[in-house]
Task: structure prediction
Amino acid sequence: MKIAIAQINPTIGNISGNVQQILQLAKQAVEQNARLLLTPELSLCGYPPRDLLLNPGFVEEISATLQQLAQDLPPQLAVLVGTVEPNPKAQQAGGKPLFNSIALLEAGKVQQIFHKRLLPTYDVFDEYRYFEPGLQSNSFTLTPLDSETSTQDSALKIGVTICEDLWNDEEFWGKRSYQADPIADLAQQGVDFIVNLSASPYSLGKQKLREAMLRHGAKRYQQPMIYTNQVGGNDDLVFDGRSVAFNRDGEIVCRAAAFETDLAIVEFDERSLDLFPSKIAPVPRSEDEEIWSALVLGVRDYTRKCGFSQVVIGLSGGIDSSLVAAIATAALGAENVFGILMPSPYSSEHSITDAEELAANLGITIHTLPIGELMQGYDKTLEPLFAGTEFGIAEENIQSRIRGNLLMAVANKFGYLLLSTGNKSEMAVGYCTLYGDMNGGLAVIADVPKTRVYSLCQWLNQKGMATSASRSPIPKNILTKPPSAELKPGQLDQDSLPSYEVLDDILSRMIHHHQSSAEIVKAGHNPVIVDQVMRLVARAEFKRRQAPPGIKITDRAFGTGWRMPIASRWLKSNSQQADCATNGQD
Amino acid sequence: MKIAIAQINPTIGNISGNVQQILQLAKQAVEQNARLLLTPELSLCGYPPRDLLLNPGFVEEISATLQQLAQDLPPQLAVLVGTVEPNPKAQQAGGKPLFNSIALLEAGKVQQIFHKRLLPTYDVFDEYRYFEPGLQSNSFTLTPLDSETSTQDSALKIGVTICEDLWNDEEFWGKRSYQADPIADLAQQGVDFIVNLSASPYSLGKQKLREAMLRHGAKRYQQPMIYTNQVGGNDDLVFDGRSVAFNRDGEIVCRAAAFETDLAIVEFDERSLDLFPSKIAPVPRSEDEEIWSALVLGVRDYTRKCGFSQVVIGLSGGIDSSLVAAIATAALGAENVFGILMPSPYSSEHSITDAEELAANLGITIHTLPIGELMQGYDKTLEPLFAGTEFGIAEENIQSRIRGNLLMAVANKFGYLLLSTGNKSEMAVGYCTLYGDMNGGLAVIADVPKTRVYSLCQWLNQKGMATSASRSPIPKNILTKPPSAELKPGQLDQDSLPSYEVLDDILSRMIHHHQSSAEIVKAGHNPVIVDQVMRLVARAEFKRRQAPPGIKITDRAFGTGWRMPIASRWLKSNSQQADCATNGQD
Result:
């Protein structure tokens, strides 16, 4: 029996458009003689729908569409579709009003409904905000079309799980996160194979973890597993696809494409009761390649799903904006990327020539808008108030905000999406200007630490770009010169910050591993620097709160999964408080 | 037996400072012969601590401080303190790592720990993200000091509930939200009275609801109820205090101050087993007075808790900035409020004179920074790119962003906090400029609809301000002239938007009542306007995502409790998508 995995790229709330994707792949699945089609979690509305779920009209549209879809699908194909279902007992028994559900559609009708049992409520996930957990083990029987005698005897019993339902094997994790383990329950009941319908967002190394976990489960329970994932970018989250299937020996038998829509077919052998080997898409050859692909997809989908086709980027001649321009070029085509150079009297000669060389390499159009006269204009306007004060952070920020204003003017005038270019290290310590270089609809590399920005550019130069005139798109000088904000003469990042190798290690321990300063110092870092970094991170919270969405590529990003108070004293000394809502490159 | 309610104003994460507040009120409670002191939910760390709870070091500091506090408190006083407790069974049984708890401290020791049973996970609340629900009914016994024979016989049994534990009476609400009802459980067990330790954020009318609910519970179960609430502003949330007690007949016997720290004393009569009448603070005389008090406290606390003492505000001569200036003056004193006038060639004469009159009325210092030359500077800089295009939204936004840049320059130079002045109606439909008039550390009236802005100003003029030179601080012309952004000649808000009466009613139905466009039309609104408003709200999501925290005064604010996707198609037509990340006053 053939099972088709529809790795679709839904747009949140575009219910009719998402259904069209399902219908199209259902047609292809039938052409390939599939009996069962799997779609991702919440495939009708896309994941995550967030507070759209609070609108009764939204839920009603999903329900109505589900009924219509059942009629429109090929009747001989059984299809599992992700949907939401009202919880009829919510008001009397107490509980959330909805379930996160899967509907089994077949022969023109909704045949069965299954509810997700484990509801992730951590990091970017808010499922307990909307959903009541299902309490029952989920399975259905399906008679293969091609079986010679289509009797009950030949019917297969298929276990159904939804995303997080898979993630609670205490043997694999060394702990439980939830009381129930839906996989263990299904194995105990006895099913022929287990499907999991997911919308699992990308982070670096996540696929290794998923495959290790699936392999473990398949072997532990001697149970073939077929995992379907969503693909595509939705705001800060990129879903990487890579749907995958394992046979009962824990061997991988199928892997769908990474970061692309796909229709993968696996075949269940009713004699051996196991999956046949099938097409296995390769994994990225390096971490840099994987991250690059995620960022390209994230930019392409955010741009497209917001209705834009063209983007504008401020090019400083620095490595961050160069990487963002390269990503945008790969995502949208050189003809859809516009670079703006905005030199000031503090800009070095190379910052202009480096940006020009980059643009030539990428084949993108650039314009130059010098800001010297506007800087003088602000100086003159503010002179009555600022007379007698020293040049400082206020003046540095004015420059950054002039550039931010010019970029938004170009974006507004021509209908471009502005991409911002700050990296995660900067966003962490607040080495960026709110309403200045932070401006944009999408912060492309806001979850990419500075050291990774370098390695991505080096990887890119080794690989070369299809759209690039030269084999090495990032000019060598951009990779080798010391980083500088160029907001005052001779300024270097390392005048204000530790080296990026040191900074990124401290940040990783603090942000990803929740280490205390004592633990970080014990790992070999200078206590003064650790203390400085922790205070900088705490006091930059007000900037991050106003940042655009950034594409998440790590297990902890400054986005919807980062929920920190601003007016808080934790980790901040009193003296630092005075800076809490100021801006600066300090 | 006397029971003291410590209505404290904690700062999030300032554990040692919060303990000092508890110790100080404990001393006063002892002086007033209290036997028991109640403090709010999570009183050690302040509510809501959010993702600070993910740091093991933070939890350890709370635990260590709790032990020390037990020793430092007067030994004869029993004290209930809000704290977090590790869940020892989390890893084996599956569950969240912490409990939201109350510790009973007495005689130098932690005597008992109680866990919160109902965990709100909706709107601004994320408790299931961090906490495991408690499963047991919570009570303790206490022997009154003044009882003539201090035997077990005279001991009182006191039921303990934490905030949401109180909010699930299916008779009062007409439905259940959770399976358990901790109040019903305690009443069934038989306790002498029930205490509830809360951190319940303010919204308009919330106190009426709380008191009706407490009255209902007290009468239904013939159970005296003592409710302790946190007070103070923490980022977007204002806690209004107004701790309150009801006797077993459902009569109010005590109410603490609104929007202020307080120590209230209630007395339990061991003969009648009921509460004696005590001091009852008055309620605000109007909705406007209540909202005004919330906004003043919100501004004062955000400013103070972020370490600022002075604020700067852009004064346009319009009603929004006038109201914000008046609130800031009441919160911080006229000497700590600075107004900046930034007239352009499109500014009317009255916009300057009205702002000057307002400033004179409030007694605040103003400076004027004309922006005409900077506008010309941008025109000149952008001329090579913009030549041949029409004046439009791009140019309007440039003006707003020049002002935003100047305000931030002043804030950065002098260490002021910038307050932004947009109202909820504007924020809803996107009639505001990102990186322009939206700039600021705190959006003071972002949850105040425009029609309420008018009524607040009218109320203020009737009441007068203590700090104001004139009895009516808001100049009459500001109240009567038609609203205008003044970004092009003769521009009026009502050229682009329906009247604010109509707009605010549609928004209220959409945002607060989740009504569909069909329902709103059925209520009598023009379908074309309803459609326009709904699409404007949907497409302005990208602006709200980058807005500063706004002070929540309604049951649904655009803040931490509003979680909408940006790149979504729900309610947006395709043609509208092209504007999704542009800005404008359109």
